Amino acid sequence: MNYDKPLLAMLIGIIVVIPLEIMGLFFRHLRWITITPGEACSMMFMPEGSWTLGLLALPLVGALAILILYYLTKTIGTDYLPIKGALVGMCTYSFIFTVFGTLSKNHSMLQGTLGNYIFALSSGFAGFLAGILMKKFLFKPSQQVKD
Question: What is the domain range of residue 59?
């Protein structure tokens, strides 16, 4: 069966942002964070967070981050892929909040210490989950030839 691996990687990136947004909604309900990851991604396009625009922006960011991870595996290998996925997820979170929050001086994206930990851990969890799914569906172990 021949299939498009980068497209499958992007679909994995779209799937893993669903639990990320659910965790964000849960922690916002507890008032530990002020915006959800979807609202944070929607602030790339407008200063105020929008949950509906976040439904479009968050899967795009997730697909792009996992596509970057897929192409990184060609140089860094597939060993410990869930850990590498968690690091890519945390770097993506850091990039979004640094560029669109701090540098553009968007005060809606400013979080407290607990909010930063929650966003880093939840994006790391999403990247870890993406690494597990990529290891299972994209990078199967090579068949060993028995002599």
Answer: 5-137
